[in-house]
Here is the input.
Amino acid sequence: MENIDRTGFGPTTTADEVLAGIDLHGRLVLVTGASSGIGAETARALAARGAHVVMALRNMQKGEEVAAEIRKSTGNEAVELLQLELGSLAAVRSAAAEFLSRHDRLDLLINNAGVMACPFGHTADGHEMQFGTNHLGHFLFTGLLLPALLRSGSARVVNLSSRGHRFSPVQFDDIGFEQRGYDKWLAYGQAKTANILHAVELDRRFAAQGLRAFAVHPGAIITELGRHMSEQDIEQVMARIQDTDTLIKSIPMGAATSCYAATAPELDGLGGRYLADCQLAEINDDPASAQGLASYAVDPGNAARLWELSEELCGTGFGAAAAG
Here is the structure.
């Protein structure tokens, strides 16, 4: 790797800056939700460093347009599409089977796709939409791809979480809002907490086999993720951003922490951690603060409980014998 100063990464660092000097030729990468926003930018930045990139997405036509632009801008023809609908466990199984029919190894999996603050609804399998899509879909997809990830010998999984995880822990007694009124922000927070807990337990179970997992907060970015937000929602969010002096990131800045967690050599030997602004985040349980990591999101008991529940909800187990 080129002699590049990697000590100054922060909120305004871009994906290209994080990846400068890193050679990804020969590495196979899969990015979910890669048809727009930070998913598309993550795919582009990784392809620019030579990675073979699989873009997993719902809209194949839109995806092909983005893939064509990535091929053109990077000169890397190794960019392919995989249809993935996270709101249907059957569709997730189909997508995983399709990937495994094409490839026997996977080096980097970036679980980027998601929904935010959507109206109350259910996935095809009857799970609350945000928990079912953001967590269960990715949990099953990751689990089904474990053979390919473990075959890499040095794979990383990156789950896109959010500072919004501080809105709510996983409410194990009422995950589906069947006993309480639905609150779209509590549901979002619960799902984003689940993304972190998934990374914690995934890393615990499979680190000894060379698979490490991280969760990241990309930052405040204006993307299609906010498509369900009302004008009032947007006003409230903007007011909160102004009150906390939060930086509104560009999309290249928003993709940086994902790319950092996936590739940074300084993270070798680490896992089960949460990052923000291209840095490892520390626990901060001050209820008056919007910054840092809530301890419930990395609690090993919560992580193990969520894993077992998720296996039950997905109807598939992923090998307790591999636990370290």
